[in-house]
Amino acid sequence: MLSNLQARDAATVLHPYTNLAALPQQGSLILERGDGVFVYDVEGKPYIEGMAGLWCNALGHGREELVEAASEQMRRLPFAHLFTGKSHDPAIALAEKLKELAPGNAAKAFFCNSGSEANDTQVKLVWYVNNALGRPQKKKIISRIKAYHGVTVASASLTGLPNNHIDFDLPLPQVRHAGCPHHYRFALEGETEEEFASRLAAELDAMIQAEGPDTVAAFIAEPVMGAGGVIVPPRTYFEKIQPVLEKYDVMLIADEVICGFGRLGEWFGSTALGMKPDTMSVAKQLSSSYLPIAAVIIPNWIDEALNRQSEKIGVFGHGFTYSGHPVAAAVALKTLEIYERENILGHVREVMPHFQQRLRAFGDHPMVGEARGMGLVGAVDLVADKASKRPFDAKRFAAAKVVALAQEEGLIVRAIGDAVSICPPLVITEEEIDQLFDRLGRALDRAESWAA
Ligand code: PLP
């Protein structure tokens, strides 16, 4: 029986990533407030936010400083844009800060409102810049199976998940998907992580050869794949992939939308994984998601090519009304200040071994085929049979069952295919990590009798 609010919700809100047909029976979990790593539903029941919202609310709830940064900026200048040679202090200061933090030769930041917009911008920049460089045939972008890069037309094409393509008439014809670097699921019998990485690099090389190297412009990768099921690449993966890209002059785009700003214990996941990207997309933890803001960080050579195009065309014809919105930029700046002042990276490094140890202990659970992760993100992969790695019948929605049981236990986690993913706020304490995994453990134990 739905509550009044649930019934109104089901009647009027078109929900993203939801089984729309099932929602009117199940009803939404309606949240009202948050405090630290906890959120509370309208009945006052607390939950550990084991997903930091959508991999984004790094500082947890109730940070007055962020509220103040927003209200101060709203009072001073609630809106200003960056079009036609206009600017404002929060955007300038944030671009400077991103340039300072980013590894490599970052030159400038282009602001967007979401990860999808950032990755759409990446695609457009690749095309535009290759036209500027006089190689209009070099346009294809290689992503990977199970990658998640967003849902707008170009970024959904980069995403390597069937649900984002089926019946949406995607992907775009310029996009290809290389093999997924998930050792547990895709390695051959007896293949080591290093051998698997070598094979993936050889397959990428063959794919670029088959497409024609002069037609392949870019390769996009999350350092650790998030919404595809938290997939940590096999050892030596990027070490082997990058020389292939260099050989064919294919640029590397790092999608740092989840990994950026401390998730893996470094400012950027690229550093943690040994990636040397040409450009990066950042979002989510950039503002701890108190307000939407994202950015594409570009190096000098792209900036110079864009300048040359402006000389030719007269304008860089791309931008959003809310690119670098002053209130969002002010909140992002304050977020980055808090990360530094409170040494959030140091905290992540301190608690992540405990997080990983508790997570990986689920590898012994009868329902879990693999417990994997890195830093403060992880997943447990559910299997009907551990020895053969046989998954549950998809129609049983095993991961969704575990997520529903976890919710009863006061924990929010997320089902992704057969995986249950966990990605708490970066500020989570060891004690809260214990509470999180105790609750997940109870949910898994209860699911075991359901599965039997
Ligand atoms: N890239 C990655 C790695 C993501 O995880 C996401 C969202 O989860 C996106 C891009 C898309 O971001 P948004 O939902 O803000 O458009």
Automatic annotation (TrEMBL):
Family under the similarity heading: Belongs to the class-III pyridoxal-phosphate-dependent aminotransferase family.
Record-level GO BP terms: biotin biosynthetic process; gamma-aminobutyric acid metabolic process
Keyword line: Aminotransferase, Pyridoxal phosphate, Pyruvate, Transferase
Gene3D superfamilies, per the entry: Aspartate Aminotransferase, domain 1 (3.90.1150.10), Type I PLP-dependent aspartate aminotransferase-like (Major domain) (3.40.640.10)
Annotated EC: 2.6.1.96
Entry protein name: 4-aminobutyrate--pyruvate transaminase
MF GO annotations: 4-aminobutyrate:pyruvate transaminase activity; adenosylmethionine-8-amino-7-oxononanoate transaminase activity; pyridoxal phosphate binding
CDD domains: OAT_like (cd00610)
Pfam families: Aminotran_3
